[in-house]
Amino acid sequence: MSTAVRPQLAACPGCVAAPNGTVEQAPTEARLALSLPSIHCQACISTVERGLNAVPGVRSARVNLTLKRALIEADPEVRALDLVPVLERLGFEAHELDLAALSATQTDQAGRDLLMRLAVAFFASMNVMLLSISVWSGASDATRDMFHWISAAITFPAILFAGQPFFRNAWQALRVGRLNMDVPIVLAIVLALLTSLWETSLSGEHAYFDAALTLTFFLLAGRYLDHRTRAVARSAAEELAALEVPRALRLESAGQPVEVAVADLVIDDHILVRPGGRMPVDGVVLEGQSELDRSLLTGETLPVFAEVGSSVSAGEVNLTGPLVIRATAVGNESSLHQLADLVAIAESGRSRYTSLADRAAKLYAPGVHILSGLAFLGWYLFTFDMRVALNIAAAVLIITCPCALGLAVPAVTTAASGRLFKKGMLIKHATALERLAEVDTVVFDKTGTLTNGQPRCDDFDQLSLSDQRLAYALAQGSDHPLSVAICRAAAQAGIKAAFVTAHEEVPGYGSEALYAGQRVRLGRAAWVGAEPGEKTAAYLDRGAGAPQALTFSDSLRPGAADAVRALLNAGKDVWLISGDAEGAVCDLATRLGIKSWIAAALPQDKCDQVSLLSQQGHRVLMVGDGLNDTAALAAAHVSISPASALDAARVASDIVLLGQDLSPIAEACTVAQKATRRIRENFRIATLYNVIAVPLAVAGLATPLVAALAMSTSSITVSLNALRLR
C-alpha cells in the first residue's frame, strides 16, 4: 500500500532524501483499500462513496460491489484507519486491506485469453469454410490447389495461436508420463493438419483444414464455457494476508508512540492500540481495560472484556479504551497469519478432487490412441498406401475426439449454475456442483450464518416505562452491540430517553450517569452487583432495588429453519459448530432440531472437526461467513458462504449465497444431484456415439471431414441434453 513518507532531511519542499543519498520526489497521493463486507446494493454504494468523498483529503472513492471493496485515492496524510470510523457511522462494517498483498489478484487474464483464442478460431474457420464451399462446388486442378494452399496459410497460424491451451496441457501431461483429455485432441488436430498438407502438396481432392479449425473452435467453446461458470479464482490465503494491519504504534523508551510498519515489530515490543484499532500482533495487555470485538476470528459479535494480563490476537478490534500490549507473536507466528497458512493447506487438499471428466479421460485417452494406431497399422498392411492409412487414422482420432466429453461437464454446470443463480446462488468453482451432489453431512456456523449476527432485546417491552426511558438514556452514545440493540428497541417502541447528567462510558464495564440525584448504571452483572444468568444480558441499576436484567438473543436468518428441515428430511447429517457460548449454541440447536453441535469452537477446532468428519468417510458441506470459518470452508468437500460474509470467507467458498434467504441451500443439493445425472447421461451419449461412429471410421467409410461433422453433431446433442436442467 502506498503510504506517506515523513522526510527527515529535505532538500526542497516536497522532496525527500532517498537511502542512497539522492533526492526523490515525495509521493503526492495515497491509494487505500477497504473491505466492506456489509454492502449489498446500489444504495449502499452511493452512501459509501458520498461519505468517503466528503472526507477532507479524499480525492476519489469507488466501490466494487462484486468484491465488496472500496478503492480510495487521497492525499498522503490520509490513512485508512481515519476512514473506517466514517463508514461505521454510516452503518457499514469496514476493514483495511493491504493493496500490496492484493496486487497479484487484481487482473485475471485467463478469461480474456480464452475469449481471444475462441474469436480467432471462429474467424479462421468461417473463412476456410467459405474456401471449402468453392472446392465442394466443383473447383478443380489449379483453382482447387490454390484454395487449399490459402486455407493452409490461414489454418496453421490460427491453430498455433488458438490451440495453445491444448498443446501446453498435452505436453505437460506427456512430460511426466501420463495421458489426459488434451493428448488425443492434439493428436487429432496435428494429424488432420499433416494429412491435409500432404493431400494439398500432392494435388489431392480433399483437405481437412476446416475440420481441424472446427474441432479447435468447439473445444475452445467448451473451455470458455467452463471458465464462465465460476468467478475469478483468488487465493483465500492472500485475502487473509491483506487483512493484516500494515502499520502499528510502537512505544519508544520515552513512552512516545511512533508509527512503524508491522513487519518491523519484534517480540516484547510495547504497542499502543487505540479505540477502533485492530491488533497488529498477538500479545498480552500491559495497561488499560477495554472490550474486544473478536468477530474476525471467532465469528461472534458480542465483545469480550480485556484487562491487564488478558491475551489478545492479531485481527481483534479494540472497541472502547486504549490498550498497551506486549507483543508475544509477530509476523508469520501471529494467529491471523497462522490462520492464513491453515487455509492454504486446506485449499491444497481440496484441489486434489478429481472431476468426472478427468476420471473419464484416464480410461478414454489410452483407448483412443490404441484404436487409432491399430487402424493405421491395419490399413497400411492391407493397402501399403500411406495416404489411405493416415486418412483413416486421422478420421478415427477426429471422430473419437473427446469434444462431447469436453462439453459434457461445462454444458451441464452452466445450465445448473443459471438455474441456481435465479434462486440466489452463485457457483464459483468448476467442480463445486459435482462435489455438492456427493454431500451427506452439512456443518453450519451460527452467528451471521444461521442467525443475523445482531443482538435483539427480548424483554424490553416488559420493563416499566420509566425503566425503558432510563435504559435508553444510558445506552445512547455507546457503540456496544447490546447498547445498540436497546436503542433500536426503544426507537421501535417510540420511547423517549430520560434526562441524565454526567453520562460516562466505562470501558469494559458499561455506562453510568446521574438521574434524579442518584447514580445509575447499565452494564455487566458484576459491575452493578447482580448475579449473572445463563443468557446474554445487560443489567440496569436504578440506584435503588435489585438490578433489572435485559436479556438478548440473535434472530434467525430467513429460511434457516426451512433449510435445516429440508436437509434433515433429505437424510443428511446436520451439525452446528460455533465459537459462541454453550447456552446460546444449545438453545439454537434445540430450536432447529439439530442434534450434533459444538460450542466455544476456535478456527482450528472447526477445521479439525470438518477434517475428522472427512476422515470418517463423510462428504462435508460447510456453510459459514466469518474469518474464523475460512479454514473449515477450505477444508470441506464443498462450501457455501453468504454474500454478506467477509471477503476471505467468500473467496474460500465454492458457492456464494447472494440473498439473505438460506432455503436455496437444500435445493442446490437437489439440483447438483440432477446435474451429476445429466453429466453421466452425456458421457453415455458420447460413448454410444463412439460405438456407432468408430466402426465406420475404422472401416474407411468416413473421411476426416465427415468425422468432424459427426463430432460436431455429438457435441450439439450433449449441449441440448444439458439444457433440460433449466
UniProtKB/TrEMBL annotation:
Question: Which Pfam family name is an example for this entry?
Answer: E1-E2_ATPase
- UniProt xrefs under CDD domains: HMA
Q: Which organism is it from?
A: Phaeobacter piscinae
What gene is behind this protein?
Answer: ccoI
Entry annotated with the keyword Ion transport: yes
Keyword vocabulary terms for this entry: ATP-binding, Cell membrane, Ion transport, Magnesium, Membrane, Metal-binding, Nucleotide-binding, Phosphoprotein, Translocase, Transmembrane, Transmembrane helix, Transport
Domain of life per record: Bacteria
What is this protein called in UniProt? Heavy metal translocating ATPase CcoI
Q: Which residue range or ranges hold the HMA domain? A: 30-95
The record's section on Gene3D superfamilies has: 3.30.70.100, Calcium-transporting ATPase, cytoplasmic domain N (3.40.1110.10), Calcium-transporting ATPase, cytoplasmic transduction domain A (2.70.150.10), HAD superfamily/HAD-like (3.40.50.1000)
Query: Main subcellular localization, coarse class?
Result: membrane
Q: Does the keyword Plastid apply?
A: no
List, alphabetically, the PANTHER family matched. ATP7, ISOFORM B, CATION-TRANSPORTING P-TYPE ATPASE-RELATED
Location of this chain's protein in the cell: Cell membrane
Family, according to the entry, reads as follows: Belongs to the cation transport ATPase (P-type) (TC 3.A.3) family. Type IB subfamily.
Q: Tell me what topology the record assigns in the membrane.
A: Multi-pass membrane protein
Membrane spanning stretches: 114-135, 147-167, 179-200, 206-225, 363-382, 388-416, 687-711
